[in-house]
């Protein structure tokens, strides 16, 4: 039973295999499925981007495919950076440039105005074109300076503290973060759905 994850990021593949452990699935990357091209993430919502990526990989591989899109939404910035989280500081910008832009745009805001949330949307697409959407959201607030090490492709972790906690995502272990993160929530919903509805269909 094969499921293609529409990513070229080996770290995401490892994370997904951990979350979906216990299922009889052969989880492979887009590269391993023979899909080396990328699709432009030009949707206006997380759902649109995730669905576009999953459909692209499913159509080219002929397999079940899953993709995710996620980002940071800051209340005081009217939801920015949102779907532009990865390119908020311009094309080719690095992780700390993204962080610095968010901190600059929220500079001087009092603690009660620094609310933010991480959102992750996961799309599952069948070879026949059917699709299902799963989402996870974690609320929290922004710090005024970075705390903790920068994880690859997860720069905003250094300035986000989830509600009910006193340290940033970056200061947490991977296990602790995954237990409550937006991505962990969305993929656990996917796992529950596969367990209940699709275990006998994935070929």
Polypeptide structure, described:
The protein contains five helices and six strands; from the N terminus they run E-H-E-H-E-H-E-E-E-H-H. It is an alpha/beta fold and 203 residues long. The chain has one domain (2-198): Maf protein, CATH 3.90.950. The chain has a six-stranded mixed β-sheet with strand order 2-1-3-4-5-6. Strand 4 (115-125) and strand 5 (131-142) form a beta hairpin.
Which descriptors apply to this entry?
single chain, 203 residues, alpha/beta, Maf protein, six-stranded mixed beta sheet, 6 strands, 30% helix, globular
Range of strand content: 15-25%
Characterize the overall form. globular
- Between the first and last Cα atoms, what is the distance in angstroms? 5 Å
The top-level CATH class is Alpha Beta
Q: What's the number of extended β-strand segments?
A: 6
Topology:
Blueprint: E1 2-5, H1 10-19, E2 26-29, H2 46-61, E3 64-74, H3 95-105, E4 115-125, E5 131-142, E6 160-162, H4 174-180, H5 182-198
Parallel strand pairs: 1-2, 1-3
Antiparallel strand pairs: 3-4, 4-5, 5-6
In short:
The protein is an alpha/beta fold. It is 30% helix and 22% strand.
